[in-house]
Amino acid sequence: MADSSLAATGPLLSVSINKLQTIVEMDPETMTFTVYDAFDGMPVAIPRVISIKDYIDLQMRDRTRRAFLKEATRSLQAQDQGGSATSLELIGADIAGQRVSLRVRGDININGSLTKNNQSQTATTANQYESTNFQIKQTQAFKIEGKVGDRVSINVDQDSERDFDFENSLQIHYTGTEDEIVQAVEAGNISLNLPGANLIAALPNSNGLFGLKAVMKVGALDVTTIASLEKGKQEKRSFTGAEANQAQTIKDFSRVHNKYFFINNFYRRKFYPLNTAGLHVLPGRKITDIEVYKSILPSSQTENSEIYWGYA
After folding, report:
1. What is the distance between the alpha carbons of residues 269 and 250, in angstroms, rounded to a whole number?
2. Closest Cα partner for 143 from 109, 168, 173, 116?
3. Per-domain residue ranges for the chain?
Protein backbone atom coordinates (compact mmCIF):
# COMPACT_ATOMS: atom_id res chain seq x y z
CA MET A 1 0.00 0.00 0.00
CA ALA A 2 1.46 3.35 -1.06
CA ASP A 3 0.63 6.76 0.42
CA SER A 4 0.97 10.21 -1.10
CA SER A 5 0.31 13.67 0.29
CA LEU A 6 -1.01 16.72 -1.53
CA ALA A 7 -1.76 20.25 -0.31
CA ALA A 8 -3.84 23.00 -1.91
CA THR A 9 -4.21 26.53 -0.58
CA GLY A 10 -5.79 29.70 -1.90
CA PRO A 11 -7.90 32.73 -0.94
CA LEU A 12 -11.06 30.63 -0.73
CA LEU A 13 -9.50 27.17 -0.37
CA SER A 14 -7.41 25.68 2.39
CA VAL A 15 -7.40 21.91 2.13
CA SER A 16 -4.78 19.42 3.26
CA ILE A 17 -5.03 16.17 1.33
CA ASN A 18 -3.03 13.48 3.07
CA LYS A 19 -5.34 10.51 2.72
CA LEU A 20 -4.78 9.64 -0.95
CA GLN A 21 -3.63 6.02 -1.06
CA THR A 22 -2.90 3.24 -3.52
CA ILE A 23 -4.26 0.05 -1.93
CA VAL A 24 -3.20 -3.46 -2.94
CA GLU A 25 -5.29 -6.40 -1.70
CA MET A 26 -4.67 -10.10 -2.27
CA ASP A 27 -7.41 -12.69 -2.75
CA PRO A 28 -6.08 -16.11 -1.59
CA GLU A 29 -8.91 -17.99 -3.29
CA THR A 30 -8.32 -16.64 -6.81
CA MET A 31 -4.63 -15.90 -6.19
CA THR A 32 -4.99 -12.41 -7.64
CA PHE A 33 -4.22 -8.88 -6.55
CA THR A 34 -6.68 -6.00 -6.58
CA VAL A 35 -5.14 -2.53 -6.94
CA TYR A 36 -7.16 0.67 -6.59
CA ASP A 37 -6.75 4.31 -5.57
CA ALA A 38 -8.71 5.52 -2.54
CA PHE A 39 -9.23 8.78 -0.72
CA ASP A 40 -10.01 8.53 2.96
CA GLY A 41 -10.79 4.85 2.46
CA MET A 42 -13.23 5.45 -0.43
CA PRO A 43 -12.28 4.17 -3.93
CA VAL A 44 -11.86 6.97 -6.47
CA ALA A 45 -10.97 4.87 -9.53
CA ILE A 46 -11.88 1.57 -11.13
CA PRO A 47 -10.00 -1.29 -9.40
CA ARG A 48 -7.50 -3.30 -11.41
CA VAL A 49 -7.24 -7.07 -10.93
CA ILE A 50 -3.96 -8.76 -11.88
CA SER A 51 -2.45 -12.16 -11.31
CA ILE A 52 0.42 -12.90 -8.96
CA LYS A 53 2.81 -13.36 -11.86
CA ASP A 54 1.88 -10.01 -13.40
CA TYR A 55 2.12 -8.33 -10.00
CA ILE A 56 5.63 -9.70 -9.46
CA ASP A 57 6.66 -8.57 -12.95
CA LEU A 58 5.32 -5.07 -12.29
CA GLN A 59 7.13 -4.89 -8.96
CA MET A 60 10.39 -6.02 -10.55
CA ARG A 61 10.08 -3.42 -13.29
CA ASP A 62 9.30 -0.70 -10.79
CA ARG A 63 12.24 -1.61 -8.55
CA THR A 64 14.57 -1.86 -11.56
CA ARG A 65 13.46 1.58 -12.73
CA ARG A 66 13.95 3.07 -9.28
CA ALA A 67 17.41 1.51 -8.95
CA PHE A 68 18.42 2.77 -12.39
CA LEU A 69 17.25 6.31 -11.61
CA LYS A 70 19.11 6.25 -8.31
CA GLU A 71 22.34 5.03 -9.90
CA ALA A 72 22.07 7.46 -12.83
CA THR A 73 21.45 10.38 -10.48
CA ARG A 74 24.43 9.45 -8.35
CA SER A 75 26.65 9.11 -11.44
CA LEU A 76 25.60 12.52 -12.77
CA GLN A 77 26.20 14.13 -9.41
CA ALA A 78 29.66 12.59 -9.27
CA GLN A 79 30.47 13.94 -12.75
CA ASP A 80 29.26 17.43 -11.81
CA GLN A 81 31.40 17.45 -8.69
CA GLY A 82 34.45 16.05 -10.49
CA GLY A 83 34.10 18.28 -13.54
CA SER A 84 34.43 15.43 -16.06
CA ALA A 85 34.32 11.71 -16.42
CA THR A 86 37.13 9.43 -15.32
CA SER A 87 40.04 9.40 -17.74
CA LEU A 88 41.22 6.26 -19.48
CA GLU A 89 44.86 5.26 -19.23
CA LEU A 90 45.89 3.90 -22.62
CA ILE A 91 49.59 3.46 -21.91
CA GLY A 92 51.13 2.88 -18.54
CA ALA A 93 54.44 1.05 -18.58
CA ASP A 94 58.15 1.39 -17.93
CA ILE A 95 60.14 1.71 -21.17
CA ALA A 96 63.94 1.90 -21.05
CA GLY A 97 63.80 2.78 -17.39
CA GLN A 98 61.38 5.67 -17.99
CA ARG A 99 57.76 5.73 -16.89
CA VAL A 100 55.48 6.34 -19.88
CA SER A 101 51.83 7.19 -19.18
CA LEU A 102 49.11 8.43 -21.51
CA ARG A 103 45.59 9.31 -20.39
CA VAL A 104 42.64 10.16 -22.64
CA ARG A 105 39.51 11.98 -21.54
CA GLY A 106 36.62 13.05 -23.75
CA ASP A 107 33.94 11.71 -26.02
CA ILE A 108 33.49 10.80 -29.68
CA ASN A 109 30.05 10.79 -31.31
CA ILE A 110 29.33 9.11 -34.64
CA ASN A 111 25.91 9.64 -36.21
CA GLY A 112 24.80 7.95 -39.42
CA SER A 113 21.81 8.65 -41.64
CA LEU A 114 20.44 6.74 -44.60
CA THR A 115 18.41 8.57 -47.22
CA LYS A 116 16.61 6.83 -50.06
CA ASN A 117 15.00 8.85 -52.85
CA ASN A 118 12.57 7.46 -55.39
CA GLN A 119 12.55 9.48 -58.61
CA SER A 120 10.49 7.25 -60.83
CA GLN A 121 8.49 10.20 -62.13
CA THR A 122 11.45 12.53 -62.77
CA ALA A 123 14.18 10.19 -63.98
CA THR A 124 16.73 11.85 -66.25
CA THR A 125 18.41 8.67 -67.44
CA ALA A 126 17.23 5.18 -68.18
CA ASN A 127 18.23 3.64 -64.84
CA GLN A 128 18.14 6.65 -62.55
CA TYR A 129 15.01 5.81 -60.59
CA GLU A 130 16.31 5.36 -57.03
CA SER A 131 19.26 6.77 -55.13
CA THR A 132 20.52 5.83 -51.69
CA ASN A 133 22.82 8.11 -49.71
CA PHE A 134 24.54 7.19 -46.48
CA GLN A 135 26.03 10.05 -44.49
CA ILE A 136 28.19 9.89 -41.38
CA LYS A 137 28.78 12.82 -39.05
CA GLN A 138 31.53 12.49 -36.49
CA THR A 139 32.29 14.90 -33.68
CA GLN A 140 35.01 14.51 -31.12
CA ALA A 141 36.13 16.44 -28.09
CA PHE A 142 38.98 14.93 -26.13
CA LYS A 143 42.07 15.75 -24.11
CA ILE A 144 45.24 13.70 -23.94
CA GLU A 145 47.69 14.11 -21.10
CA GLY A 146 50.90 12.14 -21.00
CA LYS A 147 54.35 12.05 -19.45
CA VAL A 148 57.58 10.38 -20.48
CA GLY A 149 59.76 10.21 -17.44
CA ASP A 150 60.05 13.35 -15.37
CA ARG A 151 60.96 15.83 -18.10
CA VAL A 152 58.70 15.34 -21.11
CA SER A 153 54.98 16.09 -20.96
CA ILE A 154 52.34 15.90 -23.69
CA ASN A 155 49.08 17.86 -23.78
CA VAL A 156 46.50 17.61 -26.57
CA ASP A 157 43.18 19.47 -26.60
CA GLN A 158 40.98 18.87 -29.64
CA ASP A 159 37.34 19.77 -30.30
CA SER A 160 35.76 19.49 -33.74
CA GLU A 161 32.94 21.90 -32.80
CA ARG A 162 35.26 24.86 -32.32
CA ASP A 163 35.05 27.68 -34.80
CA PHE A 164 38.76 28.01 -35.57
CA ASP A 165 41.59 25.50 -35.84
CA PHE A 166 43.97 27.58 -33.75
CA GLU A 167 41.70 27.04 -30.74
CA ASN A 168 42.86 23.41 -30.69
CA SER A 169 46.23 22.85 -29.09
CA LEU A 170 49.05 20.33 -29.26
CA GLN A 171 51.97 20.79 -26.89
CA ILE A 172 55.10 18.77 -26.15
CA HIS A 173 57.20 20.22 -23.36
CA TYR A 174 60.69 19.24 -22.24
CA THR A 175 62.17 20.62 -19.02
CA GLY A 176 65.91 20.42 -18.44
CA THR A 177 67.90 20.50 -15.24
CA GLU A 178 69.62 23.55 -13.79
CA ASP A 179 73.06 22.44 -15.01
CA GLU A 180 72.01 21.79 -18.62
CA ILE A 181 72.39 24.32 -21.39
CA VAL A 182 68.95 23.50 -22.80
CA GLN A 183 66.54 24.62 -20.12
CA ALA A 184 63.25 24.00 -21.96
CA VAL A 185 61.97 22.91 -25.35
CA GLU A 186 58.37 23.40 -26.50
CA ALA A 187 56.83 22.01 -29.67
CA GLY A 188 53.35 22.57 -31.09
CA ASN A 189 51.29 25.53 -29.95
CA ILE A 190 53.80 27.88 -28.41
CA SER A 191 53.96 31.49 -27.23
CA LEU A 192 56.76 34.03 -27.20
CA ASN A 193 57.26 36.36 -24.24
CA LEU A 194 60.17 38.78 -24.45
CA PRO A 195 60.93 40.68 -21.25
CA GLY A 196 61.77 44.33 -21.82
CA ALA A 197 60.50 44.31 -25.41
CA ASN A 198 58.56 47.52 -24.81
CA LEU A 199 61.88 49.37 -24.58
CA ILE A 200 62.68 48.59 -28.21
CA ALA A 201 59.16 49.20 -29.61
CA ALA A 202 58.56 45.50 -30.23
CA LEU A 203 55.62 43.30 -29.40
CA PRO A 204 56.14 41.93 -25.88
CA ASN A 205 53.88 38.89 -26.28
CA SER A 206 52.91 36.70 -29.19
CA ASN A 207 50.40 33.88 -28.79
CA GLY A 208 48.86 31.38 -31.17
CA LEU A 209 52.12 30.33 -32.81
CA PHE A 210 52.76 26.80 -34.04
CA GLY A 211 56.33 25.59 -34.19
CA LEU A 212 59.35 24.97 -31.98
CA LYS A 213 60.78 27.04 -29.15
CA ALA A 214 63.97 26.40 -27.20
CA VAL A 215 65.24 28.22 -24.13
CA MET A 216 68.98 27.89 -23.44
CA LYS A 217 71.25 29.28 -20.79
CA VAL A 218 74.98 29.83 -21.26
CA GLY A 219 76.41 31.32 -18.11
CA ALA A 220 74.59 34.58 -17.45
CA LEU A 221 73.24 34.72 -21.01
CA ASP A 222 69.69 33.54 -21.75
CA VAL A 223 68.97 32.59 -25.36
CA THR A 224 65.46 32.00 -26.75
CA THR A 225 65.16 30.43 -30.19
CA ILE A 226 61.86 30.11 -31.97
CA ALA A 227 60.78 28.68 -35.33
CA SER A 228 57.08 29.03 -36.09
CA LEU A 229 54.81 28.20 -38.98
CA GLU A 230 52.13 30.63 -40.09
CA LYS A 231 49.21 29.11 -41.92
CA GLY A 232 47.39 31.13 -44.53
CA LYS A 233 44.78 30.68 -47.19
CA GLN A 234 44.53 32.51 -50.49
CA GLU A 235 41.51 32.50 -52.75
CA LYS A 236 40.83 34.15 -56.06
CA ARG A 237 37.43 34.80 -57.52
CA SER A 238 36.33 36.45 -60.74
CA PHE A 239 32.99 38.14 -61.30
CA THR A 240 31.57 38.89 -64.71
CA GLY A 241 28.70 41.29 -65.03
CA ALA A 242 25.68 40.26 -67.06
CA GLU A 243 23.54 43.38 -66.99
CA ALA A 244 21.16 44.09 -69.84
CA ASN A 245 18.84 47.00 -70.60
CA GLN A 246 15.28 46.13 -71.46
CA ALA A 247 12.74 48.69 -72.63
CA GLN A 248 9.33 48.61 -71.00
CA THR A 249 6.25 50.21 -72.53
CA ILE A 250 3.47 51.41 -70.23
CA LYS A 251 0.23 52.28 -71.96
CA ASP A 252 -1.88 55.22 -70.87
CA PHE A 253 -4.74 53.04 -69.67
CA SER A 254 -2.40 50.80 -67.63
CA ARG A 255 -2.33 53.29 -64.78
CA VAL A 256 -2.31 52.51 -61.09
CA HIS A 257 -5.86 52.76 -59.87
CA ASN A 258 -6.89 54.56 -56.68
CA LYS A 259 -3.57 56.38 -56.41
CA TYR A 260 -3.56 60.17 -56.40
CA PHE A 261 -1.00 62.96 -56.04
CA PHE A 262 -1.19 66.50 -54.72
CA ILE A 263 -0.34 69.31 -57.13
CA ASN A 264 1.61 71.16 -54.44
CA ASN A 265 1.90 71.44 -50.69
CA PHE A 266 -0.90 74.02 -50.47
CA TYR A 267 -3.57 71.52 -51.51
CA ARG A 268 -2.06 68.93 -49.23
CA ARG A 269 -2.28 71.21 -46.19
CA LYS A 270 -5.85 72.25 -47.00
CA PHE A 271 -7.14 68.76 -47.79
CA TYR A 272 -8.59 68.19 -44.31
CA PRO A 273 -11.14 68.56 -42.80
CA LEU A 274 -13.69 67.02 -45.15
CA ASN A 275 -17.30 68.14 -45.32
CA THR A 276 -20.29 66.17 -44.02
CA ALA A 277 -20.46 64.21 -47.27
CA GLY A 278 -16.84 63.11 -46.89
CA LEU A 279 -15.66 65.32 -49.78
CA HIS A 280 -12.90 67.88 -50.04
CA VAL A 281 -14.05 71.39 -50.84
CA LEU A 282 -11.68 74.36 -51.23
CA PRO A 283 -13.67 77.54 -52.03
CA GLY A 284 -12.00 80.16 -54.14
CA ARG A 285 -9.66 77.76 -55.92
CA LYS A 286 -10.32 75.66 -58.99
CA ILE A 287 -7.89 73.81 -61.22
CA THR A 288 -8.80 74.39 -64.87
CA ASP A 289 -5.69 73.34 -66.80
CA ILE A 290 -2.79 71.01 -65.99
CA GLU A 291 0.37 70.97 -68.09
CA VAL A 292 2.66 67.97 -67.81
CA TYR A 293 6.25 68.01 -69.06
CA LYS A 294 8.68 65.19 -69.58
CA SER A 295 12.34 65.75 -68.82
CA ILE A 296 14.64 64.33 -71.53
CA LEU A 297 18.42 64.60 -71.52
CA PRO A 298 19.61 65.28 -75.10
CA SER A 299 22.39 62.95 -76.17
CA SER A 300 25.47 63.94 -78.10
CA GLN A 301 24.47 61.83 -81.10
CA THR A 302 20.87 62.99 -81.59
CA GLU A 303 20.46 66.71 -80.98
CA ASN A 304 16.88 67.96 -81.18
CA SER A 305 16.23 71.72 -81.10
CA GLU A 306 12.57 71.18 -80.18
CA ILE A 307 13.44 69.72 -76.74
CA TYR A 308 13.18 72.15 -73.83
CA TRP A 309 13.54 71.81 -70.11
CA GLY A 310 10.29 71.75 -68.18
CA TYR A 311 9.20 71.20 -64.59
CA ALA A 312 5.86 69.93 -63.29
Report:
1. 32
2. 168
3. 2-81
Q: How far is residue 256's CA from residue 261's CA, in Å, rounded to a whole number?
A: 12
Cα–Cα distance for residue pair 81/76, rounded to 1 Å:
9
What gap in Å lies between CA 224 and CA 218, rounded to an integer? 11
Q: Name, in order, each residue with C-beta under 8 angstroms of 110's C-beta and a sequence gap of 6 or more.
A: 136, 137, 138
Q: pLDDT for 17-26, tens place per residue?
A: 566 788 888 8
Q: Is the peptide bond before 273 cis (omega within 30 degrees of 0)?
A: yes
pLDDT in tens, 285-311: 777 887 877 766 665 545 555 666 655
**In sequence order, which ranges of 35-97 are alpha helices (DSSP H)?**
52-82
Residue 283 half-sphere exposure, CB side, CA atoms within 13 Å? Answer: 1
Q: What is the pLDDT of residues 42-76, one digit of tens each?
A: 877 788 888 888 888 888 888 888 888 888 777 66
The residue among 65, 62, 68, 59 whose CA lies nearest residue 26 is: 59
pLDDT digits (tens, 9 = 90+) for 106-132: 777 888 777 777 665 554 554 555 677
By the 8 A CB rule, do 171 and 154 touch? yes
DSSP state of 4: E
Sheet holding 205-218, edge to edge: 88-95, 98-118, 130-148, 152-159, 169-175, 182-193, 205-218, 221-229
Percent of the chain with pLDDT over 70: 67
